[in-house]
Amino acid sequence: MTAWSDHRMQDLLEIECPIIQAPMAGAGLSKLAIAVSEAGGLGSLGCATLSPEDLLREVKAMREHTLRPINLNFFCHQAPPPAPAREAYWQELLAPYYRELGLDPQAPLPSATRAPFDEAACALVEEFQPEIVSFHFGLPKDALLNRVKATGAKILSSATTVDEALWLEAKGCDAIIAQGSEAGGHRGIFLRDDLSTQMGTMCLVPLVVDAVSVPVIAAGGIADARGIVAALALGASAVQLGTAYLLCPESTISPLHRAALQRPHETALTNLFTGRPARGIVNRLMRELSPIRAEAPAFPRAAAHIAALRAQAEAGGSTDFTPLWSGQSANLARKLPAGRLTKTLAAEVADLKI
């Protein structure tokens, strides 16, 4: 690819073009990742919402259907301590919605479905040896991280501030994903929980580039060649795109989510659905409770409180209680197969003659 003036990410990850498909847990599986990798980018599998059996199946599929590098992504959150009073308050706050939908507000809650990187996940990495392993919400404990490094995998993780980028570099990350506030889904914030520290991609990227010596990957609000060129001009060596791939046929989002992305909408950061701030399309729950509530149960417990409401509403065709993750660039997304979209973006960047 002669279009790319900075080849550090191609050389590091052994890919043709520095376009990384964001590992959107719950929005794409091996089919999406394979298509992107086969097109010369880096396909990613979000592993945090997969059961051990599903994770094994998806990783096997990736290994069977592509010889290109793959990226397995894991969350690094810590299980929250019990907080019965906080959960009881939240249950009472949501009770009117439960009753409106004919549900029992006191019904037992399901267990959390977002698993942090642990011994079992590490063993799978050691067995399948993915070329890249990436993390969200920091990094795992040193013992586990060292085992991942011993496989030869390149290590990536998300930073939402310069301080987080410096912390990740000191821990031995091979490249850092600078996640701007425009990005859809969960913020990678991990050193502090102050959302006032979060800045946009075009401000964050050059600050991180100047602060660290490893390559930087720009993420957030990038969905076309113009955004890619802008990020590279600011010093990024690659880009990570998530929302741009949501309308691809390989995406696993629901028809309701897919339709919402194609209607006029606004997005906001919210912690109502999982307990951690994440950007999604504003819906009824966000409007009526306000997007951020300090009382929300800690991640990932808040998701359990919404599960029954979400299922019941979706069965009736409503997204009132659905986390519709989306970045601010959704209107730039195209309904193309993921492989074709990756190649089209690369060609369009070449046409812009960076």
Describe this entry's structure for a reader.
It contains 13 helices and eleven strands. With 354 residues, it is of the alpha/beta class. Helix 2 runs parallel beside helix 13 and helix 3 runs parallel beside helix 5.
Q: What labels describe this entry?
A:
354 residues, alpha/beta, 2 domains, three-stranded antiparallel β-sheet, globular
Radius of gyration: 19 Å
Q: How many domains? A: 2
Name of the level-1 CATH class of the largest domain: Alpha Beta
Binned, the helix content reads 25-40%
Q: At the third CATH level, what is the topology name of the largest domain?
A: TIM Barrel
Q: In one word, what is the shape?
A: globular
Runs with pLDDT <50, length 5+?
none
The first-to-last residue Cα distance is 12 Å
Number of helices: 13
Question: The biggest beta sheet, please?
Answer: 8 strands, parallel
Order of helices and strands: HEHEHEHHEHEHEEHEHEHEEHHH
> Roughly what fraction of the amino acids lie in strands?
5-15%
What's the total number of strands? 11
Mean pLDDT: 96
> What is the CATH-assigned architecture of the largest domain?
Alpha-Beta Barrel
**Helix/strand structural class:** alpha/beta
* CATH homologous group name of the largest domain: Aldolase class I
Give the strand order, joined by hyphens, for the main sheet: 1-9-8-6-5-4-3-2
Task: Present the secondary structure layout.
Elements: H1 8-13, E1 19-21, H2 30-38, E2 43-46, H3 52-65, E3 70-75, H4 84-100, H5 119-128, E4 132-136, H6 142-150, E5 154-159, H7 162-170, E6 175-179, E7 185-186, H8 201-211, E8 216-219, H9 225-233, E9 238-241, H10 255-261, E10 267-270, E11 278-281, H11 284-289, H12 301-315, H13 338-351
Parallel strand pairs: 1-9, 2-3, 3-4, 4-5, 5-6, 6-8, 8-9
Antiparallel strand pairs: 7-11, 10-11
